[in-house]
Amino acid sequence: MEAIADPFSRDKFFKEMVAKFYETGKAINIASVLEIDQVINPVEIRDWIIKGLRSAPPHRAGRKRPCVDTW
């Protein structure tokens, strides 16, 4: 952008680049490139979190093993 001397041309170029990056930077486009399985609609995030928490195993009151040997 520094090479563009005219401020109006620079502003036009900037707006074109921002529009291009917004179009190619959408979650659906990124998902197709990065091989993401699914893109969650922001409206549905709460339901996904609740489903994930409900699918977790129940909490145990006692320990199954007294300690975990990390070696």
Radius of gyration, in Å, reads 24 Å
Measured as a percent range, the helix fraction is 40-55%
- In N-to-C order, the SSE pattern is HHH
Q: Which structural class best describes the helix and strand composition?
A: mainly alpha
Q: What is the typical, i.e. mean, pLDDT?
A: 80
Quote the distance from N terminus to C terminus. 56 Å
Keywords:
single chain; 71 residues; mainly alpha
Could you walk me through the main structural features you see in this protein, from its secondary elements to its overall organization?
This protein is mainly α and about 70 residues long. The protein has a domain at about 5-50. The protein has three helices and no strands. The N and C termini lie far apart (about 55 Å).
Q: Summed up, what is this model?
A:
The protein is mainly alpha-helical and 71 residues long. Helices cover 52% and strands 0% of the residues.
Task: Please outline the helices and strands.
Blueprint: H1 7-24, H2 27-34, H3 45-55
